[in-house]
Amino acid sequence: MKCVVKAAAGSGHLALVNRPVPEPGAHEVLIKVHALAICGTDVHIAEWSQFASDRMKPPMIIGHEFSGEVAAKGALVTQLAIGDTVSAETHIVCHTCEACRRNDFHVCSHTETIGLSRDGALAEYIVIPAENAIRFNKTLSWETLSLMEPYIAAVHAATAFPAAGNSAAVIGCGPIGAMAVGVLKQCGAANVIVVEPNEARLKKGGEMGADHLVNPVGIDLARAIRTVNEDRPVDVVFDFSGNVDAIEQSLSYIRPGGRLSVLGLSDHLLKLRLDRFVYNGLTLQGIAGRRLYGDWETGRGLLRAGLRLDPIITHVLPMENYQKGINLMKTGQCCKCVLKIE
Ligand code: NAD
Ligand code: ZN
């Protein structure tokens, strides 16, 4: 089968190669991959950032946001049939650690990650545990179904606190922030304000249903937010930027008793003025991956209720053009770039 591997440590070293089709074990499924969305993690792997070099041992097939159909299954797999349409949860958890035993599977201490710590899905076929293959009705395109993994992370973040009737600021409108805007509107948020310095991405927030778009560069952000929120601070803040200064600044426009959900990642220190944080009774929630598997069911339900994700896909390319797709994601000149795998 054709697949794209990270052949060696260091920047670059990606290659389209041929490998044998893997065989599923007793509890596993073989999936014929139809579409793969490129993630920021794939850019990290291509450039060999510290994040990637700490986690990946080449050679390894890259890619983890995908859709496809079940092509073969192990003898003990009963919940899936050949031909089923699936997307996948990319975190494979141990079911035995303290976190797993407390049903906090999303923070399992022994998480294996598809396309990072084991072979990924930028390939014609992939084998994964049957548990991780999530079945969908074939009402959505393969491209849209390849967005499920980051979409469900957006669902996790955006449903961490009630949206109905509340005003929300969304910091950072990359693919995950933009999908969260759709989730918040679908959940009945009263006013969704997107804060994003990249004008094209800000516009994408509008396409996903945001009520107000604010470019934070060179303005008094707290004032701008109050202006578009009936002269009030916001009830909830959702971060998808990983920019610690922006998160810190959000304390100037969140209401007392407000809540902050943070999915964006950074290795920088987050400095919060403790007296403001404490006296305002704020809540800070870190969002790791997706709650297994409740967030998947919530996300499925929101799609059924009418949430549309197609504006997120700005580019569709053949698998062979993977490098072009990675470059597009790297420069932020797109929202989501999807590779078709025939
Ligand atoms: P992305 O990098 O495409 O989007 C981040 C956006 O934040 C960009 O559009 C950028 O212009 C914007 N931004 C930067 N500084 C800003 C500021 N000061 N104010 C407002 N916006 C600002 O990333 P993505 O793929 O959408 O993912 C979002 C974040 O989530 C990233 O940090 C990513 O590493 C992280 N992530 C976390 C998890 C998790 O499990 N917690 C999973 C996947 C991704
Ligand atoms: Zn575990």
Automatic annotation (TrEMBL):
A family per Pfam: ADH_N
Domain Enoyl reductase (ER): 10-339
PROSITE patterns: ADH_ZINC
Coiled coil start-end: none
Swiss-Prot/TrEMBL cofactor(s): Zn(2+)
InterPro entries xrefs: ADH-like_C (IPR013149), ADH-like_N (IPR013154), ADH_Zn_CS (IPR002328), ER (IPR020843), GroES-like_sf (IPR011032), NAD(P)-bd_dom_sf (IPR036291), Zn_alcohol_dh (IPR050129)
GO MF term (any one): oxidoreductase activity
Keywords assigned by UniProt, alphabetized: Metal-binding, Oxidoreductase, Zinc
Entries under PANTHER family matching the protein: L-THREONINE 3-DEHYDROGENASE
Entry's family note: Belongs to the zinc-containing alcohol dehydrogenase family.
Protein name: Enoyl reductase (ER) domain-containing protein
Organism (species): Megasphaera cerevisiae DSM 20462
